[in-house]
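Re: beginner question about structure tokens

> Can someone show what the tokenized structure looks like for a real chain? I only ever see the sequence side.

Sure, here's an example I had lying around. Input first:
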Amino acid sequence: MDSKAAGNGSSAAAAAAPTTAAAAGAKDSKTAAKPTDAKAEALAERLKLENEYVQLLTPYRFDMEVEKFAFQHYWKEHSHEANGSPAWVRHLATEYSDLSKSLPINYDSSVFMRVHESKMAFAQMIIVAPPDTPYEGGTFLFDMWFPPQYPAVAPKVNLQTTGGGSHRFNPNLYHCGKVCLR
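And the corresponding structure tokens:
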């Protein structure tokens, strides 16, 4: 007869020991699962916020109904000029149409653009910088003017976010706001 069948107390305790150890292990795994549950909840909350952000801000990614800019770097110098040729207007209209659907709107980084409704050569863009870049946490406002020779000639772009001319973010973004595109 084996010791389990004999019914002595030590073998009963030995037989119960794995069950107790298993129960203790289960209790420990529940305790260990709590941080994982907290991480899963935090991730679910982050995804919910990201989805709400995208849903709320997507309609604002592109706006062509701007009647007046509070300030636009190129306005004073070029606002008297008429829009370019019909081919220029078609080209810009095509680009604007594409941009209205393709500018990225993400919780960590987004791009918003607005265009003057009657002078489509004038635009402004806000870029919310992505994480893990030298620009992380920054929001940058750019003024743009598309000359009549565009696209053969690069647009003029001026960075307004320079801290009053005190910051130069990289060799192509001057402290005065000039943006070197070519």
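Each token stands for a local structural state, so reading them left to right follows the chain. The two ends are 92 Å apart (CA to CA).
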